[in-house]
Amino acid sequence: MTNRLFFEVKPEYSAFEAICKEQNEIGYYSLPEQDLGYLEQYKKDFYAKNKNVKHLVIIGIGGSSLGLKAIYRTLKTTKKFTKKIHFLESTDPIAIKSELEKVELESAHFFVISKSGTTIETTAIYKYILGLLSEQKIDEDYMFTYVTDKGSLLEAHSKSKKSFCLNIPKNVGGRFSVLSAVGLAPLSLIEVDIKELLDGAKQIKNSFLKNGYLKDILLKKATYYAKNSMKYNINTLFVYSESFKYFTEWYVQLWGESLGKKQLNSSFNVGLTPVGITGPKDQHSFLQLIVDGFRDKSVTVLKIRNFNYDIKIPDINLKELESLDSINKLSFNSLINLQADSVIEALVDKGDIPVDTIELECIDEENIGKFIFYYELLTSLVANLIGVEAYGQPGVEESKIILKNKLSKERSLYENY
To answer: Quick check: 296 pLDDT over 90?
Structure first.
């Protein structure tokens, strides 16, 4: 993984010291070195009870599904898996119906993922699944794995059933949890190389904390974002691979929910707005706004050096389109990277659009692990520099309280009807 910045700034090394101190309290930093014994035991127990599972269904929302979905959908473009993973992450009835039509319930296993154990959306979908299994008289024994905090109500519920339960470390927040059991348990069942995934994350962690090349790169980038957060308050991740488009959803949650806060030592509301777009498709939509629109956006371009799938444009001459013969015999791998390089050059030439590039060698577990931990570290650094606590989400909690009150009133009206 290489990262090149097209802007200069003096890095704030105080942020590095803060991250070193924070490691003692925030759990995601230790996930790359975690003991995988629990996962090996889980797989052994799982297969002892489940012989013919073809579908894994994830019931979760936000941090309980976005990172896992990003990894699965990205690797799915380059690998063949014996099981399919489906995501029920919305209370949209059409989305639920549409996704379940792809699932054979008799050969399905369900992951109910909720850090708190009381997520309303997750519980609603879970109850719906239980209803379906009951209607179709399907034995639900060992059809569920619950992933939640130790001591949560969901963990207590899991003990009332013949099922599996895995815990999320208490000090690992939901949107930083993809490298915990939240992501690793389902991925291990489709034979994703978990050790390679964690090794990629570990390489980024060590490069930053042990004075590798990423230390100054990440500090400079975070410092620039923090110092210019009022001017360039929109951060655009421009991924030049359809395989990585689901990572833009994960990035939007990670960045938005971690950085959009009131400052710890003031009453100021701050934050950096994340936007995820995909190239070359969005060259024909969002790029115009970046190039000629209001100067409030920074841009990170993600490139893949080698797509490991070499198809070429045939040497065909088209009447009246001879001017486009320059693409003949060119590989699509080369074409998409030339498109990315052209966009980068055009943006840099403007002189007033902050640009940097991230280049991954290929699409595999190691490089995905690198990308995940890079952005988690960057998020923590920026949060420290703009003076916010990255790991809570008080704005979200407020809406949850309002929803619970509305549901209570709805229930009362129903019972009194």
So the answer is: yes
Question: Whole-prediction pTM value?
Answer: 0.94
pLDDT digits (tens, 9 = 90+) for 309-334: 889 999 999 999 999 999 999 999 99
Any catalytic annotation for residue 400? yes
Say whether 284 is catalytic: yes
pLDDT digits (tens, 9 = 90+) for 10-65: 999 999 999 999 999 999 999 999 999 999 999 999 999 998 999 999 999 999 99
357 C-beta neighbours (distance < 10 Å), count: 20
Mean pLDDT of 249-277: 95
> Is 257 a residue of the active site?
yes
Domains and CATH numbers, the chain: 2-21+196-394 (3.40.50.10490), 30-194 (3.40.50.10490)
Question: Catalytic: which of 257, 365, 366, 376?
Answer: 257
Residue 413 pLDDT? 54
Residue holding tokens 């190389």? 193
The catalytically annotated residue of 44, 80, 284, 319 is: 284
Torsion 310-316-320-323 (CA) sign: positive
